[in-house]
Each structure stands twice: as structure tokens, then as C-alpha cells.
Amino acid sequence: MRRILLGALGALVTGLVDPAVAEPAPAAVPQADRPALPESVPAPAALDSQGLRAGPVAAVRTLQLLQDRVASGSVAAHEGQPRLIARINADLLAAAPEVWADGHHVRAAIVFSLSGGGPAILRRLTALDGLGEREATLARGALAFIEGRDADANRLLRDFDTAGLPPTLAGAVGLAQASLIVTENPVRAIALLDRVRLLLPGTLSEEGALRREVFALGQIGDLHRFEALAIQYLRRFPHSVYAGNFRQRLAYQLTQFDVGRDEARFGALNRIVNELAAGSRRDLYLLIARTAIQEGKTASARLAADKALALCGPESPEAAQGRLYRAAAEIVDLATFEPGLRTLQALDRSKLPARDIPLLKTALATAEEIGRGLVGTRVGPVADTAPSRQAQAAADSTDGAARLIPKAQATIDQIDLLLQKATP
């Protein structure tokens, strides 16, 4: 029964993609958490005018300088990236054929395409004669990877030895290789990502490799290394443009570890979250609690909600969220059903974000169905203590618990209907 009811509640929560296989779109980090960027780092507008006339190698280095600013938290650099990529792409496509006789330029073009530049220049290069064997293989493999032809990309790149390649190219290829195998062979993907981090410290490539490696470790259930690298990410790249999405995926993965199961697991969660400022800690605990409701981890939801509530003002919107998530976990446990229901009924809906209103409505509807199963009648107002006594009697009785299961099965169709109505 608990599984059915948790599934009903979880269906309302925004689904999270599997962090081991999906790359997130960037999300903003709170402005207060961002550092001032060093004056010595050129602004995007300045980078836009440098290096593009000096050939593919210099042009790609210009792009990398801009992307490294993204890892440092520059929203302006992230927003300026498409314009710079479009300009470099046009210059590479207009380059004279003799430019590509130089293997350095060919390798730079491959890096460019794997760094967000797209497939156009690779289509041009793979149609040329005279490329070196390694460069031709890399160009074809990178093109297949970018175009989503995974079978061809695997055949060409999976076992390609990047030893001897320039670090930037080896890093770009390593990230592609890891992406191709992370689902079926996460251990090897982790080794590849380790090498990328060693090759390109302080760059967006390192940031991306570290971010991916954290979730590959989650995929294999290595909580010890997961904790170590999650802390490393939060220390090294707290202001990355991708840090907001990292935290969302982190909440999902921590829920998969079922951090509420025992003190050791919850201690790992707390050590990771303690790397953040108080406001960010509160928000991450709330996100973990909400995600735990979705995943049916009631202990994790309650513990995370309690940690969030300790960081909230008592009448704040965040406190209302914390109370909602805790109560949604409480109503599926007979021992805490009554206080959970009272909390749900007392919540001020005006303080909840719009995305949580359907969750509240369905939690209340689900609690009503559970109450009917417990006492055979609709759950009345909190002030009516008779249903509470009857519910407690049912909870203390094996027969009462046994009667609850078929009643829950009989009401699941009604709950599904409520879900359909509540889902925006």
C-alpha cells in the first residue's frame, strides 16, 4: 500500500532525468554566490575580436578562454558563446583548402566541433583527401558522435588511444568516449573522466568531467568517492553556470543513495551540503526532500525537510515548503498519519510555489482516502478526535492494517483520477 500511495504522490513532482546519461541546460547560481571576475580576464566582447584571423588553432583557443569563464560563473560569457561559435564556424568553413594540410588546424577544428561548434566543419573535413589516418578517424568519429550516430561513434572512438594528442583534443575526445560508454561501463567512463580532469585543470573541460564523474559514481553506488568528488566540485566550481543544475542532479542522486536509511549515509549528505552557504543549504535540503517524495524515500524526505526547516524563518515560504514535504511523507505512515494530515490542512497555500499546489491537493486527497480505509468514513476536521482514536486503534491492530491494504487497492483508481485532475 505504501508503494502505491508514494507513487501517487510522486507522480506530481517534476520528474528528474537520470543524471548519469543526460547533460543539463545551464541554470543560474544566486547572484550573491558569484565572485567578481578578475579584471585580467578579457571580456567576451574583447575575446570576440582576438585570434579569429590567426587561423583555426588561435580561433579555438579564443573559444576555450571564453568557455573557461563559463566555468568561473560568467553568465555574460555563456550568453556570448553562441555568437563567437557562429563567427568561428563561418571562418573555418571559409578557410582555403591548403589550411587543412596542417594537422594542427585539423585537430583544432575537431576540438571546436566537440566543444559546441557543431558538425558543419567536420562534414567538410571528412570529405577532403589527404588527412592523416588518426585525424581522419577522429574527424569521422567526432562527426558521428555529434550527429547522434552512436554505433559509428563507438566503432571509431571507443578504443581510440588519445595518448600523444594535445591535451585539449585528448580532453574533448575523452569526454565523448565517456559519454558513449557511461551507461554500460561506468567504471571505464570514470577512468576516462579522471584523465580529462588531470589533463585540463581549471577549465570548463575539467568542470564538465568532474560533474559527469560525480554522477557516474552514483550510478555504481560508490558513496565514498561520490561524496569526495561532489565536495570537490562544490569547492572548485561553486559559481559555474552549470552549478545550479549540478545541485538538482545532486539531489536526485542523493535520494537514490537513500540517505535517510542510516546515520552514515545521512552524514555524507550533510558533509556535502555543508559546503554551501546557508541559503543554498536550505534550498538543496528542500530539493532533496521533494525529490525523495517522488522516489518513495520517506525517511530521506523527512530528515531533509527537518534540516531545511532548521534553516528557514518560521513563517517563510521555504518553511511552508518544508512542512509540505515532511507532511507528504508522514501521511503514508500510520504512526504519523494524523500529524501529517493536520499539517497539510493548516498550510497557507499562498506561501507555496505554484508547482507545489498540485502536490498539496493530491496529498490531501490521498490522506482522505487513507482515512477512509482506516475508519470507514471520510476524515473529518482536525478538531474531531474520534477518527484519530479509531485510526490509532486500526494502526495497533494487525487486522486493521490488513483491512487497509485491500481498501487502498480499491481506491487507487480514484487516486489516479485525482492525479490526472491535479497535474498541470
Overview of the structural elements:
The chain is mainly α and 424 residues long. It is 68% helix and 0% strand. It is built from 21 helices and no strands. It is elongated, with a radius of gyration of 26 Å. The two termini are 25 Å apart. Residues 8-52 and 377-424 have low confidence and may be disordered.
Short description:
This protein has helices spanning 2-10, 44-47, 56-72, 75-94, 103-117, 120-126, 133-146, 150-157, 167-181, 186-199, 204-220, 223-236, 243-256, 263-273, 278-295, 298-309, 317-330, 337-346, 357-375, 386-396, 398-422. The chain has 424 residues and is mainly α.
What sequence of helices (H) and strands (E) makes up the elements?
A: HHHHHHHHHHHHHHHHHHHHH
Strand content: under 5%
Tally of individual helices: 21
Shape: elongated
How many strand elements? 0
Q: How much helical structure, as a percent, in the residues?
A: 55-70%
Distance between the termini: 25 Å
Task: Walk me through the topology.
Blueprint: H1 2-10, H2 44-47, H3 56-72, H4 75-94, H5 103-117, H6 120-126, H7 133-146, H8 150-157, H9 167-181, H10 186-199, H11 204-220, H12 223-236, H13 243-256, H14 263-273, H15 278-295, H16 298-309, H17 317-330, H18 337-346, H19 357-375, H20 386-396, H21 398-422
